[in-house]
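Hello,

Following up on my earlier ticket. Below are the two sequence lines again, exactly as submitted.
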Amino acid sequence: MGDYIVEMRHITKRFPGIIANDDVSLEIRKGEVYALLGENGAGKSTLMSILFGTYEPDAGEILVRGQKVHFHSSTDAAACGIGMVHQHFKLVEPFTIAENIVLGVEPEEKKLGILPWVNMKKANRQISELSREYGLEVNPTDRIGEVPVSVRQRVEILKMLYRGAEIMIFDEPTAVLTPQEIEFLLQIIDNLRRDGKTIILITHKIAEIKRIADRCAILRQGKLIDVRDVADASAQELADLMVGRQVSFTQEKTAPKYGEPVLEVQHLTVKNEHKFDVVKDVSFTVRSGEIFAIAGVSGNGQGEIADAIAGLAKIADGRVILNGKEINDFSVRERCLGGISYIPEDRQETGTIPDMTLQENLSLREYFREPFSRKGILKPDPFRDYAEKLIGKYDIRCAQGPDTVLRSMSGGNQQKAIVGREIEEGSRLIIFVQPTRGLDIGAIENIHRQILEERERGAAILLISLELDEIMNLADTIGVLYRGEILKIDSADRMTTQEVGRYMMGVKEA
Amino acid sequence: MFLSRRLTGKYASLWVSLLAILMTLAAASILLLTMGKNPLVAFRSFLQGCGMIPKENYGGGSGMLTDLLDFLNYLAPLILASLAFITAFKAGLFNIGIAGQMLLAGFTATVLIGYNKGLSAVVAKPLVLLIGLAVGGMTGALIGWLKYRFNIHEVVSTIMLNYIISYLTGFFINNNYVDMMTRNSKVCSPDSRLTLTNVMIGDLKCKIPLGLIIAILIALLVSFLFRKTVLGFEIKAVGQNRKCSEYTGIRVNRTILLSMGFSGAIAGLAGVAYYLGYTNTIIPKTLPGMGYDSISVALLGSGAPIGSIFAAIVVSIFQQGANYMSSTVGVAKEIASLITGILLLFASCGNYMKYKAARKIQLAADLRGTEGKEAKAS
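Thanks for your patience. The regenerated structure is below:
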């Protein structure tokens, strides 16, 4: 038993309406990379939040280094040498990197013996040393708000190291990174392992597990399905275990049949609230029957391009032309009615009204016109009929049918509702922004199939995604966006994943 | 378990309100007991003061009906004020300027119509209502405009406007319209009032509150707006998710302006029903407490227009019955405001109660589930 650094025995955790972890037991050896594989909602993050002290389990016990522990908060866990990099970084943007790292464990000194004072110079020096030691180059005096995502992640890792963490939990660390950055991170994880740290990696990407992990636990619907030695398990095997059935990785795609241009974007410039050009002089054309994909690292202006086309962001310069007509001055509604459907990035903040019912959410593009309403008065029956039709057609799972409150549905089903609502409009242009973010393999398959069906129907599709695999699988044409500029537009079959990845990093010609 | 089921069922909001009232009564009882008073006697005298239970004796020309009509006279503006709050609240706006909007509308109507002795009742009363609607509506719209044009939060602008209105009207009353005896504004002409006074029913001298009819009409109208109309749907959408509303193509700014305008207009009606119905005079530099009570009422009625009628009745019983209770039981009448405050506190715990109940039911279901499994296994 001595070689297990963490043991979780019979952990059960319930939330209203769901059992997140159902009698899960894990043993993790010191110095290994232990992967937790599972679809969204399988209970990976909950299980690790229990280990990290964020939640207390309803049943079961945790042993760290053979000692039984009770964590009431993450402070308790940190005292036991457990650190965690959350999916959404917990950093204070106006603070410097060093300030973020020492926050809560400041190197405090007493001036004149009484006045407490934080020695930031010392902290900066310590952090520089630490970052060189592990190959995590950062400049301690940069402000978090001004550094890219990959650096922020390094800061989170340094934060754990600074606190002397021995057991490090990474929650979906690669979701926000480019292929090159992912490679770099995996190397860092490898270094940490060589240094004797224990790594727990939460992910649903099998390629990463194959590349780095020693052992892999598969969770499905809160239950532990299996623990495998990664060396003995094939990627297909792991995927089937995770989903619980046979899965296919790629979609059949027919040869493109391009029609006339539907969307033309000419020299588009969009400014943010600080008058900074977030989109600079972007031009491209999407034809009927074409999937035009914009690749790029998060925060390079993708969302703003989509918003500018849909009418949610102001166009500072340039023209947006739909079906040969300039729509710069059109309102959002005029654009919708003119043939734009838009699946936005944030499904709860932008795509839906979570506290309204499913039928109200499904009717958001229709409620203001007949037969849904007449002369300003709503007609209840069309709402219900339309909702029932879409629920069947798009396989939206909902507990109380059209009256289900949207918030109570799973993320995948919320996304099905949005996609269904937007596709049902039969628009000539459909904008998909990160359509599969946070969804599990089954749901991703489903949405990819629908995107291809719409292409078949002759819709022009603008696909904006951070997932390079998704872009390589679906796109006919790829435009790579870097710092608001399109660096390269080319046919998808003339570009490799590596090439696109390089442009995403801002390298113009290799 | 009985309660948990009710709190998660179809009529959950109703049960939350009932529970809030019960808890308030319990808290008030403890309060009264510590003062050495019998809570049951106190609660009875609240009801007696509102003409719902007969008093031991009545003065000449008054009776249970007079008390009841007085109660309804108070109830009418309170219903209207809470409807004003609800209308803005559905759009996600917190209109705590109802007191100011009431005062400005009441003051304007008093000065323009109430002091104009030449107008007959048939002309004066509709004009009073119109002025209430217009003045309140414009004040509300101004707040909405400040919000979308300059991004001034409505809570800040309404609080500031409350002070401005209070001192501005107070200044004019003290300068031009003060009654030297009472130090309040001079009373309005009977023809302009929304309450018919000195109506003899049998041998009782009664007041007939016309405002109540208007309050019920507006409640039905607001209910219709939010249940049946496109505009109501859009207001609710904006209230729940402004970003998604914009994405859907709703003109968010226009919706904010409209709902704030409606809210102000209804508050204006409440103002004229209060100042030209219930009080008949204005105390200078004093905001009507009813403007704030309306928030308790709206929350107790869980934001439902018809529900707020019943919630208003509950709050009015305490507010209106306080005088009689105070004279018979000997507790300062300010306890009415105290009780209203406690009520607000419990009513705003509604979501927490629903959450707790849902969790309890879920846990019980889980337990049953595991027991069932074990039973099968053995």
